[in-house]
Amino acid sequence: MVDEEISFPVINSELCKGCKRCITGCPQNAILLSDDMNNAGYQYAYYSGNGCTGCKDCYFTCPEPLALEVHQYKKIVDDTVGRMIRAKVASKGGK
Ligand code: SF4
Ligand code: SF4
Predict the structure, then answer these.
(1) What is the distance in A from the centroid of ligand 1 to the CA of 9?
(2) What Gene Ontology molecular function terms does this protein carry (predicted)?
(3) For residue 61, which atom of ligand 2 is closest to its CA?
(4) Structural domain boundaries enclosing 80
(5) 8 A C-beta contact, residue 43 and residue 36
(6) Residue 2 has what pLDDT?
(7) How close is the Cα of 29 to the center of ligand 2, in Å?
(8) For ligand 1, what atom is nearest to the CA of residue 56?
């Protein structure tokens, strides 16, 4: 079994005030500012869809309660076949 971790920020566009702290704070530049505005008249942050490592810097820097969460999942992958293939290749000296 292999653990694969999947992380991504979930931003509530209606609670975001567009302060950009999460954008500045993300070491992966994974959060962007929308051109659109929410119902309160703020441009809001959104996840680009790529690059999140789950560090949670964006979560800790956001001043708006419930505007930003970081979701993390652990996907357990059955890698039995992969291990068998790697073992076979290794036993043949990588050929
Ligand atoms: S958890 Fe870290 S890497 Fe992911 S979006 Fe937030 S600041 Fe960026
Ligand atoms: S830090 Fe929070 S309020 Fe500021 S832009 Fe990011 S999600 Fe919006």
Answers:
(1) 7
(2) oxidoreductase activity
(3) 1
(4) 2-91
(5) yes
(6) 64
(7) 14
(8) 1
Domain count, the chain: 1
| CB neighbours of residue 30 within 10 Å | 20
Q: For residues 9 and 38, what is the distance between their CA atoms, to the nearest angstrom?
A: 18
Say if residues 27 and 55 touch (Cβ distance below 8 Å).
yes
By C-alpha distance, which of 23, 84, 27 is closest to 52?
A: 27
Q: For 47-78, give one letter per residue: b (16+ CB within 10 A) or e.
A: beeeebeeeebbeebbebeebbebeeeeeeee
Q: What is the pLDDT of residues 23-80, one digit of tens each?
A: 999 999 999 999 999 999 999 999 999 999 999 999 999 999 999 999 999 877 788 8
Who contacts 83 (Cβ-Cβ below 8 Å, separation ≥6)? none
Residue (of 2, 12, 3, 1) closest to 71 by Cα position: 12
The token duo for 69 is 């969460």
Ligand 1 pocket check for 55: Cβ under 6 Å = yes
CATH number of the domain residue 45 falls in:
3.30.70.20
